[in-house]
TrEMBL record:
Gene3D superfamilies: 3.40.50.12500. This is Hydrogenase expression protein HupH. Belongs to the HyuE racemase family. It comes from Thalassobaculum fulvum. One of its GO terms (molecular function) is amino-acid racemase activity.
Length: 252
């Protein structure tokens, strides 16, 4: 049976990890593929600075470094920042799926322009970076924020009555004022709002986490992976040094 490793970008306990695993309920994948969720040991408190981005890359790289040797057939990264994706692709031959870029690319299969709806405006650089890398600035109708500080551990639990209507109004402005044909949720931490928004908006709403699981499944079955021309293997891999960073973080 194929196995997929889902790397969760923050250390967390079992209860909060279950909130991440709940994303699996949004996609039907059948009984013949397994998904394991693994929190990182190295992580920033949030993703709002260049230091945070560096720590996120290192933490996700360390968490996924042995995925192929451990028998996994693909890796999904549980953050729309796609942190660590490029580095892991250079170290692994199995598919490594980042939900941010794949959500944007999928949006262009469904419409001409998309908008990103996020919780917090301080996340904006995450999206502008990916848009620039993909050359899709002209296809992004807007990036709009609900201006609500997120909780990376508890997600939206207990705040539904406060958060969901605000996100709906923000997304509606993207459609009505910015002419977005598709809405992309700006974080996997927002997955609990997907059903609410999808039922109330006149355009498709992409839930990046579940999309990445479906794409990993497709990549495995089609025997596709990233190009080693784009993501070459290091001439001098430093897997032991990276693993030592993780061991040091876990010992603290």
């Amino acid at each position: 049976m194929p196995k997929v490793l889902v790397i969760v970008p923050f250390p967390m306990d079992a209860d909060n990890l279950a909130k991440r695993q709940a994303q699996m309920k949004a996609v039907r994948l059948g009984p013949d593929i397994a998904f394991d969720f693994k929190p990182v040991a190295i992580a920033p408190a949030n993703y709002v600075s260049q230091q945070d981005a560096l720590l996120a890359d290192v933490g996700i790289l360390e968490a996924g470094l042995t995925a192929q040797a451990d028998g996994y057939d693909a890796v999904c990264i549980d953050t729309v920042s796609d942190s660590g994706m490029n580095a892991l692709r250079s170290m692994l031959d199995i598919p490594v799926i980042g939900p941010g870029r794949h959500a944007m690319l999928t949006a262009l299969m469904l419409g001409d322009k998309f908008s990103v709806v996020c919780m917090w405006d301080r996340w904006r650089p995450l999206y502008t970076k990916t848009l620039a890398e993909l050359g899709l600035e002209g296809k992004c109708a807007s990036i709009r924020s609900a201006d609500l500080q997120p909780n990376n551990q508890e997600l939206l639990g207990g705040r539904e009555d406060e958060v969901f209507p605000v996100l709906h109004q923000v997304a509606l402005r993207c459609v009505e004022e910015d002419r977005a044909d598709v809405i992309v949720l700006g974080s996997t931490t927002m997955h609990e709002a997907h059903a609410y928004l999808a039922e109330r908006l006149p355009v498709p709403v992409i839930n990046p986490g579940p999309l990445s699981y479906r794409l990993a499944d497709a990549a495995i079955r089609l025997r596709l992976s990233h190009s080693k021309t784009t993501y070459p293997t290091p001439l001098t891999p430093r897997a032991q040094a990276i693993a030592a960073m993780g061991a040091a973080a876990r010992a603290q």
